[in-house]
């Protein structure tokens, strides 16, 4: 019977997450819905939920492009040359206008890195896209996700397999086969138009044979996403047969899913007729072949080509950043006096904006002069002080979630990610704050935040101060169309925003001329990006460069005569170019095989440029983006600009079959309500009869619509007298969400306080009480942002308690006060239950703020604060409805001490005007360790705890490190209206946090000081 009892308790713990939720403070971040997919369109084979306004020609055109791209690509992919497979079902598409919309989808849950351009969900085959990108990139991303749809449809996993994957994380194929295969297939149809998306990374990897992925690295998923196509590219080139129309890369991808039970090594063996062997058995042939292929393709080109830190006939180069900083640098901007650079890089706690002095070129300094310097070592330094000044040392999520830095946090768009004000006192950049990117101004000396401006626009990038410092120009989207904008920052009390361009295309990377009359920027020209000039006083635009190539990252010389920029005109690789505006002459200065980005002229020159390019890192052995200087000598080539007109057509794949799709005007004029597309499921459904339980059964059941904004959930269990029924409906269509539900519980009261180790609390009355509770609940919450929310709730509830088999109200108090077998604690618990029995009509409100960030290094919270304040009011209504007022506060703070240690503090208070069934149980893994589990209880409680958590060097349990902690706990608890004194207890001690071998549960071994002895305790729990 004990085994059956434990089974039931574990069952209840799984089925009833809401049973004790009222007694436990609920923290957590918010999923803020800033918009909703309230529009619906049916194409031939796709159902599109979207939030685009099709009465706007630009948004209509974008929707049309998305549908045409997917419909055409679906035909192409389903053909015999690719997957040779037909997807019979219509594919649901969730198309968001911007990233904040996609992030708030319930499929995501509240946080999605901006580097995720789209995704496909396996279970219901839903595809999510966003309209944040240029048209070529949007098409490429959409085709990539469509390849995932084909993969999943061919594989066709059962619901059981999907659920097992969610639990274990295991897949039938490694991630590189899914992602690399989808990218490879998509690249055959819609290749990326820019080299800095995938291309340059393959050349970097190919420059060193030790970087090229081996079979062991692939199968153990130690290969970054940008390298995952390398196997397919290798097979396509080395083992295809064009005459027979056989593409080995395609065949490997397709057969990998059609023969899902066959190992990839065996598939390769058959595909290559044994030339690569079976790498699952012996990978030597495969490793040698793929290494040779990529080294032959790019190795000599990269290793023997020009280097940015060397010199040749065209330029003299050198590194201009601290040599010992082993992390990528991006988007350097020059200080007005020309002596410093500010750039984004990765420091200890993530992406940061730093500044440093530009090192001066050193010549030989005689020994006598070195001795005069006082510190001889300074004379040998080629990098000045060599110190990076971190201007953004604040830990997220305050004052921002993350900095907007292309390549680090976002896709590479174009332009610089920061701008230095002309007076040198401020730096402007964008950071994620609340809904989207906000403009931030900081003090260049201290990093103090001077101003944060949230914009009514989407995805703002590339700030650029005007020549007088009163305006900041930037690129941002409004209703899908990306243009150049400007915001007035000359008055801290004024927010004035102006649209500069109105091309409704994809304008990026604005930089204002030194005389303040013009803005150079990048805009789309067909599938390409080119230089454009906007004349501020006249409002007219002029295209500066033409052709089937891309330009990027323009900036001005101080005299306004020349624009320096990067272009992939030669060989599709970004290199250094200048444009003489007087003569309209283009000059190419570098031909680096790994390219460069973000060039900017040195102060007062047109022959010295600072830029970013991949370079060898002597400290780590890797290849990172570093900041270099080039003194220009002789151009590689030059030519006069010629207006060749706009680029037409899909130049990257002109032979593909394209059918013209036009939106159905009837659907647009008579839009359908977006269908719900409910899907229901359940589990653990069982019914039966036993001599012990009598009738028994259990089940859970749930339904959700396709957007996961509406959910019905029901749970049921019955074992003898133990019964539970819980139903709820939740609606999250809008920013204010709501939920209503009904439940009835009948169970031993201690089930709600069951502990894996100690089992039952040390409460005689509680352990012999059954609770019966019936309630109707209504709950709503309004999240102001991800970190702050307001909750309102109401509850009509009836509770009754059965003690020793009798209704608690029928028992005489004398039996507890006279009998010496009952303690004072027992008497108080009896009175509490007796006074709590009855009905309440509760109204409540709570404010929650949670800014805690987490880290694997600390096995949980790392830094931040959490606060929850809650009040409840139940008006007295006759004899049946009891009245009370209660309040509770729960606060936590975490302060990191380095990357693996922290101080954690916690305080909780609760009070009530009368017994209402809610109380706090102390002594246990969650509160007040080291005393008998559950031995202290009350409904007027104060509790505080402080911990120092740290790693214990050199300690492991079966290879998993052990963490230590020191702690001190204190509590005061009493029941209201009692004459008994409050129970007070203090504990302090130390402990170790580890993972229990084999079963994998987190555990703590704790020692507390009591009566001059150290007493051990054991808990299965993680740190709070």
Automatic annotation (TrEMBL):
Keywords: Signal. Gene3D superfamilies: membrane protein fhac: a member of the omp85/tpsb transporter family (2.40.160.50), TolB, C-terminal domain (2.120.10.30). It comes from the Bacteria. Belongs to the TolB family. Transmembrane segments: none annotated. Residues 1-25 form the signal peptide. SUPFAM superfamilies: DPP6 N-terminal domain-like (SSF82171). It holds the Pfam family PD40. This is Bacterial surface antigen (D15) domain-containing protein.
């Amino acid at each position: 019977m004990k085994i059956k009892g434990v089974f039931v308790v574990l069952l209840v713990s799984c089925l009833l997450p809401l049973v004790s939720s009222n007694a436990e403070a609920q923290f957590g971040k918010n999923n803020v819905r800033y918009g909703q997919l309230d529009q619906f369109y049916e194409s031939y084979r796709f159902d599109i939920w979207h939030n685009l306004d099709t009465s706007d020609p630009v948004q209509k055109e974008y929707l049309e492009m998305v549908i045409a791209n997917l419909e055409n690509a679906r035909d192409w992919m389903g053909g015999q040359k690719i997957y040779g497979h037909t997807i019979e079902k219509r594919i649901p598409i969730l198309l968001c206008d911007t990233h904040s919309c996609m992030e708030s989808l319930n499929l995501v849950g509240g946080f999605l890195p901006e580097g995720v351009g789209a995704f496909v969900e396996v279970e219901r085959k839903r595809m999510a896209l966003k309209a944040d990108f240029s048209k070529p990139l949007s098409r490429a991303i959409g085709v990539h996700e469509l390849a995932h749809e084909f993969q999943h449809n061919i594989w066709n996993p059962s619901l059981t397999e999907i659920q097992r994957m969610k639990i274990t994380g295991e897949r039938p194929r490694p991630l590189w086969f899914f992602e690399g295969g989808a990218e490879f297939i998509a690249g055959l149809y819609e290749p990326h138009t820019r080299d800095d998306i995938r291309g340059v990374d393959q050349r970097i990897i190919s420059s060193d044979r030790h970087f090229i992925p081996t079979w062991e690295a692939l199968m153990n998923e130690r290969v970054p996403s940008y390298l995952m196509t390398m196997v397919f590219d290798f097979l396509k080139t080395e083992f295809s047969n064009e005459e027979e129309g056989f593409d080995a890369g395609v065949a490997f991808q397709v057969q990998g899913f059609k023969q899902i039970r066959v190992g990839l090594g065996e598939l390769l063996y058959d595909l290559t007729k044994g030339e690569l062997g079976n790498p699952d058995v012996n990978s030597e042939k495969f490793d040698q072949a793929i290494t040779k292929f990529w080294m032959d393709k790019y190795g000599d080109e990269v290793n023997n080509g020009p280097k940015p830190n060397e010199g040749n006939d065209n330029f003299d180069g050198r590194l201009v950043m601290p040599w010992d900083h082993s992390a990528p640098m991006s988007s350097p901007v020059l200080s007005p006096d020309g002596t410093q650079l500010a750039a984004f890089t990765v420091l200890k706690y993530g992406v940061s904006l730093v500044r440093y002095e530009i090192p001066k070129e050193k010549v030989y300094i005689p020994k006598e002069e070195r001795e005069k310097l006082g510190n001889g070592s300074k004379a040998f330094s080629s990098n000045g002080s060599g110190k990076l000044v971190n201007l953004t040392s604040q830990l997220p999520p305050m004052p921002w979630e993350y900095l907007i830095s292309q390549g680090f946090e976002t896709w590479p768009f174009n332009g610089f990610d920061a701008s230095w004000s002309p007076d040198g006192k401020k730096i402007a950049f964008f950071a994620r704050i609340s809904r989207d990117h906000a403009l931030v101004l900081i003090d260049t000396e201290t990093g103090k935040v001077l101003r944060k401006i949230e914009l009514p626009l989407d995805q703002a990038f590339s700030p650029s101060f005007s020549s007088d410092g009163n305006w900041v120009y930037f690129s941002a989207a409004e209703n899908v169309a990306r243009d150049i904008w400007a915001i007035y920052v000359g008055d801290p009390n004024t927010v004035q925003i102006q649209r500069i361009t109105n091309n409704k295309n994809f304008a990026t990377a604005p930089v204002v001329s030194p005389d303040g009359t013009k803005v150079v920027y990048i805009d789309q020209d067909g599938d390409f990006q080119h230089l454009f000039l906007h004349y501020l006083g006249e409002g007219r635009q002029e295209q500066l460069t033409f052709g089937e190539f891309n330009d990027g990252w323009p900036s001005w010389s101080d005299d306004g005569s020349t624009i320096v920029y990067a272009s992939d005109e030669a060989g599709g690789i970004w290199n250094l170019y200048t444009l003489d505006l007087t003569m309209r002459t283009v000059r190419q200065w570098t031909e680096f095989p790994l390219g460069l980005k973000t060039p900017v002229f040195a102060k007062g020159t047109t022959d010295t440029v600072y830029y970013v390019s991949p370079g060898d890192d002597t400290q780590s052995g890797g290849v990172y983006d570093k900041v270099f200087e080039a003194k220009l000598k002789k151009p590689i080539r030059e030519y006069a600009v010629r207006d060749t007109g706009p680029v037409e057509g899909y130049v990257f794949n002109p032979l593909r079959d394209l059918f013209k799709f036009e939106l159905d005007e009837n659907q647009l004029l008579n839009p359908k309500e977006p269908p719900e597309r409910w899907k229901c499921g359940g589990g653990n459904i069982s019914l039966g009869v036993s001599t012990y339980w009598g009738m028994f059964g259990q089940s859970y059941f749930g339904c959700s619509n396709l957007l996961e904004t509406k959910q019905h959930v029901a749970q049921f269990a019955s074992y003898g007298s133990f019964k539970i029924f819980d139903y709820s409906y939740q609606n999250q269509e809008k920013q204010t969400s709501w939920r209503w539900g009904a439940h009835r519980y009948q169970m031993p009261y201690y089930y709600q306080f069951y502990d894996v180790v100690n089992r039952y609390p040390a409460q005689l009355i509680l352990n012999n009480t059954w609770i019966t509770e019936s309630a109707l609940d209504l709950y709503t919450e309004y999240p102001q942002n991800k970190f702050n929310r307001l909750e309102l709730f109401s509850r009509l509830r009836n509770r009754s308690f059965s003690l020793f088999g009798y209704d608690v109200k029928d028992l005489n108090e004398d039996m507890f006060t006279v009998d010496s077998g009952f303690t004072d604690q027992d008497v108080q618990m009896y009175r509490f239950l007796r006074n709590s029995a009855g009905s309440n009509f509760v109204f409540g409100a709570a404010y929650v703020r949670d800014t805690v960030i987490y880290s694997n290094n600390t096995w949980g919270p790392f830094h931040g604060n959490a606060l929850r304040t809650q009040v409840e009011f139940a008006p007295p209504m006759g004899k049946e409805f009891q009245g009370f007022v209660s309040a509770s506060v729960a606060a936590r703070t975490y302060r990191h001490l380095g990357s693996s240690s922290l101080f954690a503090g916690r305080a909780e208070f609760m009070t009530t005007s009368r017994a209402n069934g809610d109380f706090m149980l102390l002594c246990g893994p969650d509160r007040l360790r080291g005393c008998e589990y559950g031995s202290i209880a009350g409904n007027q409680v104060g509790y505080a705890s402080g911990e120092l958590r740290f790693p214990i060097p050199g300690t492991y349990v079966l290879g998993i490190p052990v963490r230590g902690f020191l702690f001190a706990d204190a509590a005061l608890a009493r029941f209201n209206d009692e004459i008994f004194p409050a129970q007070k207890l203090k504990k302090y001690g130390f402990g170790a946090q580890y993972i229990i071998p084999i079963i994998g549960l987190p555990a703590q071994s704790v020692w507390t000081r009591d009566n001059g002895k150290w007493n051990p305790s054991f808990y299965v729990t993680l740190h709070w």
